[in-house]
Write a structure and sequence with these properties.
Dna Ligase, domain 1, single chain, alpha+beta, about 325 residues, four-stranded antiparallel sheet, 2 domains, two-stranded antiparallel sheet
Length: about 325
């Protein structure tokens, strides 16, 4: 949805819902700035717009020098009826914000809303890093792979991610991509309860508890919602907003890909040494198990334990 606003007695816009939230969060706009979107009859404060009331309705204008009311408001933008032929292609929600002063979270300079691919890369880095560490610990403790329930395997990651977002506002993957997450309207890091709810929502709604093929469906839905609405379901529910502090280039994606590949190798190396893991792979895909034995000839033969020796006749 396109939103317009008034600044310096001029009409500005359009921008998406998360763009406006980011502008308010960074201090460029206030909740009482006049705004408009399709369906409104006049200019009203942003916090009263139907599309923003759930996010800005309880916020107050904390600016010391609020923009004075102008008796001659700019004309309203024309009502636009989108048709399949004229509807614009969904683009990555991104707006360049020049921050005046230093907000509470200490961010200075231009920031943008992170594109979907940067968020996906950060998520894959965090997931692969956790999987490598968790599998390494399981291989050292000797816990049987058959005793692990996949959703429970990822449960500690929810606590770890929530802890990092609470204390640092970011995670290793997000740090590589220059992304931080804060609370809508304040610009401050979220409380642990809010960070835990967000992390839980990401793993349930966004990643489908990493259960194939559920995860593929949930990831596609999340990508569709992000590109269409400009905000994910878990950010809307937890009232949080990811912000990209610096632009990401090819080097950042290469670094992420290398880290993901290395962590996947560590995960596979540890997984195959967990009791019962190789047997499970052989049951699911014998060809994969055969290829693993060719690459790693020192793997134990799972069938050797099941073989019974034929007693030799007495001489």
């Amino acid at each position: 949805m396109d939103i317009y606003w008034i600044k310096d007695k001029q009409r500005r816009g359009p921008a998406t819902v998360p763009d406006i939230i980011a502008l308010v969060q960074m201090g460029e706009l206030t909740p009482d700035t006049k705004g408009w979107h399709a369906g409104c009859d006049s200019w009203v404060p942003l916090k009263e717009l139907p599309a923003l009331v759930d996010f800005l309705g309880e916020l107050k204008d904390k600016s010391k020098n609020p923009e004075p009311e102008s008796p001659n408001l700019p004309p309203l933008p024309p009502q636009v009826t989108e048709t399949p032929q004229s509807a614009p292609t969904a683009q990555t929600p991104s707006i360049d914000i020049t921050i005046a002063g230093v907000p509470k979270n200490g961010i200075t300079g231009p920031v943008t809303l992170p594109p979907p691919w940067a968020r996906l890369a950060a998520r894959l880095v965090d997931s692969s890093l956790y999987a490598a560490i968790a599998m390494g610990l399981l291989s050292l403790t000797g816990i049987s792979y058959g005793d692990i329930i996949m959703p429970l395997f990822w449960l500690p990651m929810i606590f770890l991610e929530a802890l990092m977002l609470w204390r640092k506002g970011t995670t290793p993957g997000k740090a590589i991509m220059g992304i931080t997450v804060s609370t809508i309207g304040t610009g401050q890091r979220m409380r642990f309860s809010r960070a835990f709810f967000r992390s839980l929502s990401v793993n349930l709604i966004g990643m489908g508890c990493y259960l194939f093929p559920i995860c593929m469906v949930t990831m596609c839905i999340s990508y569709f919602m992000l590109t269409r609405r400009g905000m994910t379901m878990w950010d809307a529910q937890s009232m949080t907003l990811p912000i990209q502090l610096r632009k990401t280039g090819v080097l950042h994606y290469i670094m992420s890909a290398i880290l993901i590949y290395v962590m996947m190798q560590v995960t596979a190396f540890s997984l195959l040494r967990i009791p019962g893991a190789l047997e499970t792979v052989e049951q699911i895909s014998p060809d994969t198990a055969r290829q693993l034995r060719q690459v790693m000839p020192n793997l134990p033969d799972s069938t050797s334990a099941d073989k019974t020796t034929t007693p030799q006749p007495l001489q």
